[in-house]
């Protein structure tokens, strides 16, 4: 059987990424982070799309070079159609369309959130692969969802955030602590040295499998203001404990809803995906749930949690097998439900 080579392109937010897959194996996965947003404390859409335009050609070249694949050997081009920032999506979409037309090979659109879940089907000797049906919790800077995955492309959202995404909760909390963007990884790092039960922040009461994170940010703000009034050095002296307590509260919220979803569906296979799946705390909690709760848990490799083109490539490969191709006049879709 002939090997299928997919070139995948991801440009939905602030990372420009290209990957080459040989069937379900990743040959290369190049990610260019955009430093420019750091000084603004968050992603500036206009600057993101400009940076994508600068990065896309070198990133694609690098992905092909690292995979040692000539572009003429490619079977198809896969790209992120949405959801994401329109100006960012346009760069990857236009580039993918042009390349597929130039090479006269199929074009395959990919839903970014499905990719965060299907990343578990990348072939890797050290990783387990879930079987259908399974539950997936997608936790990123833009989304927080619990999804029932019935088949590769057949998914149902069981619950989601009613306001902020969990990654936003990390980033906005970090901003209150004076930490640079994106603050999620920094909270994770500082939390390792702190006491998670030092400051009990309230958990929101939300029905069903939905989430809410906007209230947490407010209670952290009030708490810090109050403590700083009594002791101006409160934050400097207690930063690690505050980070550990914020992370603990967020993880409690996530684990409670996951447990509810397992009880409600009777499905004990639980996968996570998205940038926040890189968090060491959630990775530990999920790994522990194997013996503590009898679940089978699936945690992506670290580099496949935050935005990357390898996850777009695996969906591209799965769709290629089904000959599930896109028309050449396909357009980017900022809001694109699973
Ligand atoms: O999936 P992703 O790269 O982009 C979106 O599709 O949104 O997720 C980015 C989010 C950011 O909010 C970032 O702070 C968060 O993932 N993140 C983390 C960690 N690494 C990335 N949050 C907590 N702990 C981490 N280690
Ligand atoms: Zn993402």
TrEMBL record:
Its main location: cytoplasm. It is an enzyme of class 2 (transferase). SUPFAM superfamilies: Actin-like ATPase domain (SSF53067). Its cofactor is Fe(2+). Fe cation binds at residues 112, 116, 307. Pfam families: TsaD. GO terms for molecular function: tRNA N(6)-L-threonylcarbamoyladenine synthase activity. The keyword DNA-binding does not apply. Binds 1 Fe(2+) ion per subunit. Keywords: Acyltransferase, Cytoplasm, Iron, Metal-binding, Transferase, tRNA processing. InterPro entries: ATPase_NBD, Gcp-like_dom, KAE1/TsaD, TsaD. It catalyses: L-threonylcarbamoyladenylate + adenosine(37) in tRNA = N(6)-L-threonylcarbamoyladenosine(37) in tRNA + AMP + H(+). Substrate binds at residues 138-142, 171, 184, 188, 279. It is found in: Cytoplasm. Residues 25-313 form the Gcp-like domain. Its EC number is 2.3.1.234. Required for the formation of a threonylcarbamoyl group on adenosine at position 37 (t(6)A37) in tRNAs that read codons beginning with adenine. Is involved in the transfer of the threonylcarbamoyl moiety of threonylcarbamoyl-AMP (TC-AMP) to the N6 group of A37, together with TsaE and TsaB. TsaD likely plays a direct catalytic role in this reaction. Belongs to the KAE1 / TsaD family. This is tRNA N6-adenosine threonylcarbamoyltransferase. The lineage of its organism: Bacteria, Pseudomonadati, Bacteroidota, Flavobacteriia, Flavobacteriales.
């Amino acid at each position: 059987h002939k090997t299928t080579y997919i070139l995948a392109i991801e440009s939905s937010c602030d990372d420009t990424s290209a990957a080459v897959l040989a069937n379900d194996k990743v040959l290369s996965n190049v990610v260019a982070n955009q430093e420019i947003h750091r000084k603004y404390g968050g992603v500036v859409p206009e600057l993101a799309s400009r940076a994508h335009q600068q990065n896309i050609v070198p990133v694609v070249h690098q992905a092909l070079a690292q995979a040692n694949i000539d572009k003429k050997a490619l079977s198809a081009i896969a790209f992120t159609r949405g959801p994401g920032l329109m100006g960012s999506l346009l760069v990857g979409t236009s580039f993918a369309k042009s390349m597929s037309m130039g090479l006269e090979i199929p074009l395959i659109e990919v839903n970014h959130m499905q990719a965060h879940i299907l990343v578990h089907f990348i072939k890797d000797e050290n990783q387990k692969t879930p079987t259908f049906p399974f539950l997936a919790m997608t936790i990123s800077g833009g989304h927080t969802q619990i999804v029932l995955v019935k088949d590769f492309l057949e998914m149902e959202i069981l619950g989601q955030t009613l306001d902020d995404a969990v990654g936003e909760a990390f980033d906005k909390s970090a901003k209150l602590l004076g930490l640079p963007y994106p603050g999620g990884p920094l909270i994770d790092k500082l939390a390792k040295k702190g006491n998670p039960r030092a400051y009990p922040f309230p958990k929101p009461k939300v029905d069903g499998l939905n989430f809410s994170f906007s209230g947490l940010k407010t209670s952290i703000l009030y708490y810090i203001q109050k403590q700083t009034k009594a002791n101006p050095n409160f934050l400097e002296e207690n930063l690690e404990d505050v980070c550990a307590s914020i992370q603990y509260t967020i993880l409690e919220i996530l684990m409670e809803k996951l447990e509810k979803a397992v009880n409600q569906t009777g499905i004990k296979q639980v996968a996570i995906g998205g940038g926040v799946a890189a968090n060491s705390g959630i990775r530990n909690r999920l790994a522990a749930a194997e013996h503590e709760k009898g679940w089978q848990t699936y945690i992506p490799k670290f580099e496949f949690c935050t935005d990357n083109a390898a996850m777009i490539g695996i969906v591209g490969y799965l769709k290629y097998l089904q000959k599930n191709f896109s028309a050449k006049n396909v357009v980017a879709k900022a809001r694109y439900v699973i």
